[in-house]
Amino acid sequence: MNKLKTNKAYFATYFSMAVIICLVLIFTIMEKSFINSSNINNLLSDTAPLMIMAAGMTPVILIGSIDLSVGAMCSVSNVLVVSFIMKFKDTIYADWFIMLVTFVTTLVFAVIAGIILGLIHVKLKVPSFIASLAFMSIWNSAALLISNSPISIPKKLWGTIDWYKISIGPLGYPLVIAFLIIIGYYVILTRTSLGRGIYAIGANERAARMSGIAVDRIKITVFAVNGFCAALGAIFLMAKAKSCAPTVGDSFTLMVISAVVLGGTALIGGSGNILNTILGVFIVSIIKNGMNIVSINVYWQKVVFGVVVLIAIAINTDRSSRSFIVK
Amino acid sequence: MSKNILFSAKNIVKSFHGTQALKEVDLDVYEGEVVGLVGENGAGKSTLMKIIIGVQPQGSGEMYLRGKPFQPHDPLEANAEGIGMVYQEQSLITTLSVGQNLFFGHEKEFMQMGIVNWKKMYAEAAAVLSEVGCEDINPRKKVIDLNFATRQMVEIAKVVNVTKEASTDGKCLILLDEPTSVLNETEVKRLFQEIRKLTAKGHSVIFVSHRLDEVLEISDRIYVYKDGENAGNMNVADATEAILYERMVGHETNSEYYHLDKQVIPKEEVVLEAKDLGCRGKFKHVNFQLHKGEILGFCGVVGSGKEEICSVFCGDESPDFGELIVKGRKTKYSAPYQALNDGILMIPMERMVEGVIRGLSVEDNIALSNAGRLSKRGMISRKRVSEQAVEWIRRLRIKTSGKEELVIQLSGGNQQKVVFARVLASESDVVILNHPTRGVDVGAKEEIYGLIRDMVAEGKSVILLGDTLDECIGMSNRVLIMRDGLVTGELDAAVDAKPSQVSIISMMV
What we know:
The complex is a heterodimer.
Chain A: H1 3-30, H2 37-62, H3 70-88, H4 95-123, H5 128-146, E1 151-152, E2 167-168, E3 171-172, H6 173-191, H7 193-203, H8 205-210, H9 215-241, E4 243-244, H10 252-262, H11 274-293, H12 298-316
Antiparallel strand pairs in A: 1-4, 2-3
Chain B: E1 5-16, E2 19-30, E3 34-38, H1 45-53, E4 60-65, E5 68-69, H2 75-81, E6 83-86, H3 98-102, E7 111-112, E8 115-116, H4 118-131, H5 148-166, E9 173-177, H6 185-200, E10 204-208, H7 212-218, E11 221-226, E12 229-235, H8 241-249, E13 270-279, E14 283-291, E15 295-299, H9 306-313, E16 321-326, E17 329-331, H10 336-341, E18 344-347, H11 351-355, H12 362-366, E19 375-376, E20 379-380, H13 382-395, H14 412-425, E21 430-434, H15 442-457, E22 461-465, H16 469-475, E23 478-483, E24 486-492, H17 501-508
Parallel strand pairs in B: 3-10, 3-11, 6-9, 9-10, 15-22, 15-23, 18-21, 21-22
Antiparallel strand pairs in B: 1-2, 1-4, 4-5, 7-8, 11-12, 13-14, 13-16, 16-17, 19-20, 23-24
């Protein structure tokens, strides 16, 4: 009798796959070089930061919340990493040690920021939408305050971020890490009590609480992990560009959320499969890469993304319930 | 009293998910009279009101208004025919003024060139209020600044206004669903005066309440419903509280129904203790001990504080005063999972909202409260989740097509059994049952009573808030009676010495 549910899940998977195939065909017809190996490699390696951030966002949306500050969090982490590196680059410590310390520091910062957002949402009962909107403003400005222009990483340290270029078969190292994170989260979501709690909270938070699920703790954990993923995405962006930019993450907020929704996760929470987020991520990065290849103006690209998000949400929203109230 | 029938309902039947809420009930209303409608929770009073006003259709049966067939599809249609309803929950918009509320949705009538003529609206509002005898309510006042009785009158005025205009003879029928539940004594008196003014003008009223004294005071005729059936229909002169009560309850405690043969004597061991427990504005000075193997019943009307006490025990709310001692240890909970760690779990009253997660399968619902215990090294075993579900489906005879069926597809009684399965699987030894048989039909009720007896036989302790008084007395070893946030009495309820309902009611109200 679970038909209803599984049909919907299959639909999300097949639909996303069909969209991917269509997009590839369209872009190939428009511009042959879309399908050549260098662009495909490029596309795959570019996808990693987005995928990591979407991995963090999926559970946030599964519990029925949202985090609009991920892009800003990514920006601020991005400049933090590089400014830490610049601070310590002339010390006596080994290069790899400097890198390790700055990475860990940035990740810890992002986790704490996620916990604070979670606490504000859970304890002060501020809707996650508005709390994260406020944090978006805070982190955007913080990034600019730390460094209002891009900083490049000195050549002598390049050796420490070469790992970004390593490939395992056709897949770049970063993408492999992103896949591993998604698979790890998939196991957590489906096989642990934390994961069951996440789905239960999204489906009916009140019942979850009354069943003895530690709702507050789970929600805060989810936001903390989301912060972690945003910072990891920022580190990947830094490694790819060998520099930082205070606005690098801004466009990611919309891309991350649209990837998750395109992957079939319901915005009201409680249903979705993080593996399908992979497909959503590819839809987004194919559109982005394809539009670059066929040289569509950057501002038009943003228009297209806005429309894509609206369509994705319109398709995925379950309007069947009469008590469905939109605010 | 004129003898023209204004409204009548014949052989109304209604069922929800296989549970019969109404089984061929009748109701007649004459012009200018107040008809009282009484019955226990789940007797079908509110269901009939909703059918009359058009919120939901009946399964079968006919309704007639002024002799003509009447079948509203929504409340607006009923309003247009001259029937209006004041709902149990207040439906005024508290941030708007009285006048704005009265004409809510009808602002067009006061528009001049696209702008509302407020002066005209308030003048009209004053006229409407005086129509129902409330000249002293200022229509410019915000509803939030009014007391509940006055708000109730504004609602009635609104309903009268909407329906009176529509009905052909200017006579309307007003349905009042538990209008006094939020009022104090003087406010009730005031409301009754206003109702009498209404009927003096030829309007009719159906007055639904569970407070028998009030029904006796205001009504001309009284209908008693029981388990969805008509259990009596009498003139007020022939009725007393005792007669009404007997009709409502129908039978004295039936030993088989409540499995009294399985009622056991509790052990000495105290598992839960409340010492001078209090919650600001809800209850205070609550003292009692719950023993191992005991069923402790809480009786009291809505608002007596019994629900809030449950919230404190299950960890949903923190007490403001006093001590909560669980298994000899003083504790304080801020969330239900902490209580669950101490082996306390509640079966909540609102099954759909708090008890089950409708979009999840039966097996996932059963595993909600003990997922942690089904895991090995942090990983939950799917096999154990489904084995557990199969086991409980068999033991509780849950009617389902399989463990993977979504809970939303089960009937009310079976959904409730899923909740019981979840609580039993959690191996909690103190179980709080907050209206465990609400919205469950008679057959399933009896099974649930059997389940509760088995739980206690296994050494669990139970706090029971009965859906009916009869149930509370029938199942409990001991009952605590509450009124206005205070414990007003404690009675033993041994198998052969169950207290009478009348004696408990005298302490409840």
